[in-house]
Amino acid sequence: MINFENFSFYYKRKNPIYTDLNLSIKPGKIYGLLGRNGAGKSTLLNNICGLNSPTTGKVTVKNRTPSERSPYFLRDIYIIPDEVYIPAIAPKRFVRIYAPFYPKFSLSEFQEYLSILDVPETRKLNNLSFGQQKKFIIAFALACNTSTLIMDEPTNGLDIPSKGLFRKLISSLSSEEKTLVISTHQVRDLDDLIDYILIVNNGHFVLAKDVKEISKKVVFKFYQEEPVGKNVIQVETVPGGFLVMHENEQEPETRVNIEQLFNACIVKPEVIEQIFKP
Amino acid sequence: MYSKAGSHRTNFQALIVMEQVFEFGRFKLLTQRIVSERGTKLFGSILFIIFCMILFLGIGYIKPSVYETARTFFVTIGLFLGPIAYTWVLSSEYQTNSQSISFLMLPSSTFEKWLAHTIIGIGLYYSTFLGFFRLLDLFFVKAIHTKYDSTGISYLVKDLEIQSFDSLLLYGPFLLGIITSLTILIGTLYFKKNSLVYSLLSVLLLGLGTVIYHFFIINLNLEGNIPMDGRSAIPFYRVLISDSSDSARDYIIGSKYSITSILSAICIPIICALTLAYYYAIKEKEL
After folding, report:
1. How far are the Cα atoms of A94, B71, B92 from residue B34, in angstroms, in the given order?
2. Residue boundaries of the structural domains of chain B
3. Which value does ipTM take for this structure?
4. pTM (2 decimals)?
């Protein structure tokens, strides 16, 4: 369980990134943290990992304070940053050095993930392309079996087939004890993957809801003509018609179009907040 | 009964806290990681220094009249400039965000990270350097004496001895080298860009500040013309005062302590403070 209590964070007092934020991230779900570039996604993740500490308020991860960076805390959390660091050593050596730090590391799972993600064998890790290096680290991070896994823009640098493999791998992972937080600004990459959506804009969460709850409250439909009379929230023109997001007035639930939802949160945050008001 | 159980519990809690701070297994893993990732560069720079050592002392062996000069020159470079390159390689742990994250998120304690860097960064370099230096110095000094013993001109090298570890020419660069190394390690945590330049500038400013403070204190308490000569710049060692009414007369007010004792009294507290500061710099490091 990750808890933010009255969390505020700023580098400069005049420009607060987060103010008085309260949020609970529960285990057993995949959280998608979405926001524009510079919205503060990485800052939030860094606070979860203890790489930043709150200016005021409190962050706890399984009742531990991340900024203390105690070994017990660190061996149960793994962060994949936007740009991964890969030392110029052989893959086997990497595993020999890093795996013993994580007590639940599984070599067989690691090999399986490498094969799923299609990471080629290499003599030295720095010979791999950026995307391959990232996939190697993703496989390693998953095999560490830490209860909290943080991924900051994991799909950056991955080619289209690799993004598909990544989605396939993540969706196959389910554990009641594991908390997975994935941040991205490429919202399409998380389609059908996440259970809970966190959309951050201007230092606060415009939306922090379960996907099931979202699909109960809004529907996403395609119309050949622009609809009139419905509680339309957002319309996007596409070839042949319109993609429309509107309030669900007792209609069958539809698949959540994360990209459209995200755009609506950025363009009409007050409407979204009104709809999802508790 | 209760108090015994309570005492066991307290001991157990203390053990857990201790294990959070230091655990040998974790420390070994951390050291292995540093050696695996940076070993080639670190050991390479040590080997390079040893090679230079052999070269310089070898030149001195070929031409014994320059042996002491070559040795002094090399010791100054090896103890002061060598660690700059060496520590720079080690401090690359923090040179990019991804490297910082990788290092800070390693499941080991701040104390272990600090200890590993201090041992590998300072301890390993200086112990290897001084160890090899003593061995090679012994070897070459003995070889020079042997070479000249069979000739009739052995008196030319009769005063040649191995360099004492407490001589100013070795001890001074040694202390300054440690201060510089620690400043570089701290600097890479604080300065995101050009950290080496800023760290070296910090050392320079520290040295300059000490000298200025020294001359300020002297001028406050003594009258006369106090010229800036090399040894008078070493704080609290000696002061040269020239008498303006009698150009032939200069006075030297000297300390009763040796120059190395004074250097120790100034530099060792600075080294302790920097070592402690490095620990807190790792602990408080944020992205």
Report:
1. 12, 32, 11
2. 2-205+259-284
3. 0.90
4. 0.87
